[in-house]
């Protein structure tokens, strides 16, 4: 296979993955974020990178959004939402965040491969994404891609779809959102 063929197969995998997304789960998540106070986003590794991109777009859309672990991130409280992107739903640091968020009255959203996981069972709202856990992605069983790449890519697409729904509900446009774009670059 050449590079173009690999890229085409990745696109095909993403089309199959997106076709499995539950529209109701995405809609409920967008509604929760719209009525929430602040939004806190976390994930480990590459899932965390997708979360950072999501937090940036939430900020562009006018939400008070924070990435957990940054020095400027305030404390979470009642009326706030913690969004966790986690393939396994068992990452200890994310589970600890979910427990703490619930203890102080914040809502928890798990976007995961594993709704029956510890984080999934603790969350107020669960979005099940299709994909392969990193330990099962093996040469074409579910994906040709290494480890959890399909999950992470689907996570980013899902997050962007939620942003588009929030934009629609709030009358946002890319032009209006650009007013919140960084200007010290």
Automatic annotation (TrEMBL):
GO terms for molecular function: carbohydrate derivative binding; isomerase activity. CDD domains: SIS_PHI. PROSITE patterns: SIS. It holds the Pfam family SIS. Gene3D superfamilies: Glucose-6-phosphate isomerase like protein, domain 1. SUPFAM superfamilies: SIS domain. One of its GO terms (biological process) is carbohydrate derivative metabolic process. Residues 29-172 form the SIS domain. InterPro entries: PHI/rmpB, SIS_dom, SIS_dom_sf. Belongs to the SIS family. PHI subfamily. This is 6-phospho-3-hexuloisomerase. It comes from Paenibacillus sonchi. The gene is hxlB.
């Amino acid at each position: 296979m050449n590079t173009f063929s690999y890229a085409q197969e990745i696109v095909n995998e993403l089309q199959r993955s997106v076709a499995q997304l539950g529209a109701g789960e995405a809609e409920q998540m967008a509604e929760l974020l719209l009525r929430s106070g602040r939004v806190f986003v976390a994930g480990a590794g590459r899932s965390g990178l997708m979360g950072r991109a999501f937090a940036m777009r939430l900020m562009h859309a006018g939400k008070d959004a924070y990435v957990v672990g940054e020095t400027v991130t305030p404390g979470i409280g009642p009326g706030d939402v913690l969004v966790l992107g986690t393939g396994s739903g068992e990452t200890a640091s994310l589970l600890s965040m979910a427990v703490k968020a619930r203890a102080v009255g914040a809502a928890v959203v798990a976007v995961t491969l594993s709704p029956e996981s510890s984080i999934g069972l603790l969350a107020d709202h669960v979005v099940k994404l299709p994909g392969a856990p990193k330990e099962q992605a093996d040469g074409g069983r579910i994906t040709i891609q290494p480890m959890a790449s399909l999950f992470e890519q689907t996570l980013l697409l899902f997050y962007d779809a939620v942003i588009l729904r929030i934009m629609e509900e709030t009358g946002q446009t890319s032009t209006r959102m650009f007013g919140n774009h960084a200007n010290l670059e």
